[in-house]
Design a protein that fits this description.
Blueprint (H helix, E strand, L loop, with lengths): L14 H41 L5 H14 L2
Length: about 80
């Protein structure tokens, strides 16, 4: 009954479009943040593992630098 006050069944003004668009924008923003953080986390976890290998002496400094540069190039 309240929606009929403005003369049409959608309510007063364009609000019937604004709220769904706001929700869609919010959901898209959350999805974007989750995906971007996940990619960044995977890159960081690879660098941490590589740092541990270097710290234990399992790879040389030259190998460490090469592998780290490969990880950073792939994440771009």
């Amino acid at each position: 009954m309240l929606a009929m006050w403005s003369g049409h069944p959608w309510g007063a003004g364009p609000w019937f479009l604004v709220f769904p668009l706001l929700w869609l924008t919010l959901v898209a923003g959350v999805v974007f943040l989750v995906v971007s953080r996940r990619e960044r986390w995977h890159r960081r976890s690879g660098e941490v593992t590589l740092g541990e290998l270097y710290a234990r002496g399992e790879i040389t400094e030259e190998e460490y630098r090469k592998r780290r540069s490969v990880l950073r190039e792939r994440s771009r």
